[in-house]
Amino acid sequence: MTDVTPQAGADPRRRRFRRFGGAAGLLLLAAAIAPVGSAGAAVSGLCGTVVQVPAPPSLVPGAFEDSSKFRLVTEATERSLATPLAVDITGNGLFETVSELSTTVIAAGTPVNSYLLHADPVGAPQPGVRMTATLGFDTDILGVQVTDAVLALGDKAVGAVGTAYPGTIAARGLEIAPHVDFVQITGSRTFQVSVLASTVADEVRIITSAAPDQGPKSGYQMIAADGGVFSFGNRTFKGSAAANPPHAAIVASAMTCTGKGYWLAESNGEVLAFGDAGLQGSLAGTNLNQPIVAMATTPTSGGYWLAASDGGVFNFGDAPLHGSMGNKPLNQPIVAMASTPSGDGYWLAASDGGIFSFGDAEFHGSTGDIKLNQPIVGMAATPSGHGYWLVASDGGIFSFGDAAFYGSTGSMKLNRPVVDMVVAPSSQGYWLVASDGGVFSFGDAPFYGSMGATPLNQPIVAAL
User: 8-16, long-range: CB within 8 Å, 24+ apart, which pairs?
Assistant: First the structure.
């Protein structure tokens, strides 16, 4: 647990933020990225149009399609290579021409982790669908496979057990060329790729060093109404409003896709940014009809939305506006918000569990017509975007779509009400956070500690 006071004179509202750029606008990120993998795996973060999924039955073109994002499959962890394994890329650098590829081998006996990025849009869109992703690993990248023949060799050596692979079919790998497909490795642990996916499929395999588990692979942070930030597990403290009290109460928060920063939103619409979170704008000085209550960010972390209790939605940076409930009568006020994996849609949740879907956000159900014991206070979406959870102040959990139920505190007597929830990296568990800093773990979400026995200056209002 950490809550550190910023240095005197450092006002987070007035800091300058440096932008990182790369080939064709590919976002460059530092090596350490927020946790998304399960314990024992080495994926430490995802940015862009990518979602992590279990190994499917088949990766043959047409069998595992998605027109908006990469699927990242963990194929093998801590597997010792039986024979030398060929790779097309080693070392740091930008690789955007075939001449920059050089086949080398990883020695037999090397323990490795293997990850496959799979892009296969529905049909054969022309001129193609641009997909980009940035992956962080907590061990070094040993090599990358991008060509058809080398990928086929990797299928046998490090492929997922029980998954059918396409073999050596033509155009399975990347078409390495400027403004078409290119990859970049930075700091030995950050991998970036951009592809123009159209016919067949586009795949790239990343081989990393396997290392023993060296600590928590997940974590959570709690945000207090005064801007205090309390970090547990592997979550890193990047600052708080302790030295610069907010002008209004903190009511919501969002984390960057790198895990190296976060935003805090005040009820008046002001936004505080910490770490690598860029300040994309705020509602400071704006006369709002109703206070801000929720916040969500885009997959690139280049923008965010703020939602007011009347359903008004305010977009900043690369966050598109797809509508709001601002001019429509509501049975109960809006209390929570979540965005889709593509960043092209979002949900608003009301305190009665009513759900309002915008953009590509799919409606999977609500509790709007159910009498609740206690009001809804938070929501979270599944990594696929095909489901979501709602949490009530008594810790009752309501799951919809592909969101699985792992337990709740609905039948427990709580010292203080639940105020928010955080989904575990695997999406097979979650944490519930109460206003006194109490934490309740369900599914595969480990308990890393709480503030339940520590006096707080202000109550917890949000969690990351």
Answer: 8/243, 10/243, 10/244, 11/244, 12/239, 12/241, 12/244, 12/272, 12/273, 12/274, 13/244, 13/270, 13/272, 13/279, 15/273, 15/279
